[in-house]
Structures are given as structure tokens and as C-alpha cells.
Amino acid sequence: MAAHLKKIQETLGKKKAVKVGFFENATYPDGTSVATVAATQELGSPAQNIPARPFMKTTFDEKQKKWMRIVKRALQEDGHDPDVALERVGLAAAEDIKKAIQAVHEPTLAVSTIKERLRDWEETGAFEKDTDLQKPLIRTGHMLNSVSYQVEDDDGS
What is the three-class DSSP state of 148? Predict the structure, then answer.
């Protein structure tokens, strides 16, 4: 994310950064990192027979110009400071990623995954019965709800 929004940071001329995605504190109930699961879905894992279902990079590529406009508009309106501009773009970027997650329908889930979801629902009620059992990336909604952003001092990393 930082690389894709480098132009925004340069536009602001301040040592601040907005980071969007899944942060260290976002974990599943069993302790699994949401960022790890999201990366596996984004890039795929041949060893686990999981195809790539990109949603982050595609969103960055498609929305980068929109995010620049948000920053420019925020800086022009009412004398808003760079922190406000970064807050606005972070919020917009997080919402755009959530929409991208919801829009992924391909590649379809394996039959074994669908059966596992149905079994989980029957045994635990782990998700709503009317949930689309065939929808990739959304099972319980935990990953979707974990998309966040932070505005912080940029330490150059």
C-alpha cells in the first residue's frame, strides 16, 4: 500500500503515511493472522490448492487516481491539514477494498470447500444460514470487517 500511495505522501510534503489493509491486531478467534489469510487469498497458494483471488492490488491499481483526487480536494477545502486528507483517503481506500472483497466471485470455491462450509454451519452455526456457501472470500465476514487504515508518522519503511 505504501508504494501505491507514495505520490499522495509526496503531495502532502509531510512525513506521514496512510496504511490500509490488515494490521497485526487483526486475528481470527484461533489466533490466525487475518493478514496471512488475506495474502494467501490475494496471491493464491498452490501448495494448499488455493487459487489467487486478487482484491487488494486490483483495487490499488483501479482506485489510485480517485484517492489522489480525495487528497487534493481535502487539502483545498476549508484549509484542511494533511492529517485530515490522509484520514479521508484511508477511509475511502478501506471501503474500496471491502467492496472489492464483496465483488470477488471467481475462481469459484472447490466442492470440498463448499461441503466444509455446509458441515461447519450444520455443526456450529458459524455463519448465517442464508450466506452464499459458494461465495469466495466471505465466510464469516471476519476478514471483510478487519479491513482498516492507519495514519501514522512515516519512519521510511
Answer: strand
3-state secondary structure of 85: helix
Helices assigned H by DSSP within the chain: 6-12, 34-43, 56-76, 82-103, 111-124, 142-146
Cell numbers linked to 37 = 489469510
Residue-level pLDDT, tens digit, the chain, 157 residues: 444 455 555 555 557 889 999 999 999 999 999 999 999 999 999 999 999 999 999 999 999 999 999 988 988 886 767 888 899 999 999 999 999 999 999 998 898 888 888 887 777 766 665 567 778 888 888 999 999 999 988 766 5
Q: Is 67 exposed, middle or buried (0-12, 13-18, 19+ CB in 10 A)?
A: buried
Give the residue carrying C-alpha cell 501448495.
47
> How long a stretch of residues is the chain?
157
